[in-house]
Amino acid sequence: MSATPKTALTIAGSDSGGGAGIQADLRTFFACGVHGMTAITAVTVQNSLGVQGFTEIPVDVVTAQIRAVALDMGVNAAKTGMLASAEIIEAVAKTLDEVRIGRDHDVPFVVDPVAASMHGDPLLRDEALEAIRTQLFPRATLVTPNLDEVRLLTGLAVTDRESQRHAADELLELGPQWVLVKGGHLFDEPECVDLLSDGFQYIELSGRRYETKHTHGSGDTLASAITASLAHELGVPDAVDEGKRFIEHCVADAYPLGEGIGPVSPFW
Ligand code: PLP
Which structural domains are found in the chain, ordered by start? Predict the structure, then answer.
């Protein structure tokens, strides 16, 4: 018999193409040595060409999944991905308090504020942005928006390092302990520069930029790798560092699959 491993819970949507969502989260948890558990919020119909549609899981089934695993198996860290609707977000927030997950309960909680796919297909109903801001951000140990999500959440367009810092400050006003503003392909530099801040420290994290269009699932994979490191009790800056190293390998080894955008690779 083995010792019980650390556990991580993802509250997110299913991707039938296997590149993003719950599928990416679970294989990242596995690769990072934690036992992965899921509360599925929505089932998407998608392939490499985009999201053709999705169905939400009934709210009471979403919250029952969280309760079932938290009360029996225990959760060392949790993350959210696609949450689909304000109704689901509000119920998830309430349930996390009930099972004592989040920054105020010493169980790290990462919010990846997923709003749309890379193809621009919506994964969140419009009215749900406000629920992410008010219900999830104040409970988060870390939030991980990309630049599109920063613009949706704050109205700010990040164009350089100074505006990236300003955006981090605005997002911290919404209550998370830490924010990671992902720079992606913003800067005309050979590196991707993400900014991590808790309002006191401003840490620039550079990563190599790879010329590939196959980056499906990269946001989910990064957030999951960070969550796994938090489950292993790393502090936030170290966990983000580990997550960046993990996603860099996955992007370097991304592969074509289907006619459109292929996934980042879990094989390395
Ligand atoms: N589908 C699901 C279920 C997701 O959770 C996400 C991202 O979080 C996506 C699709 C979009 O992935 P990408 O933007 O990497 O294409």
Answer: 7-147+213-244 (3.40.1190.20)
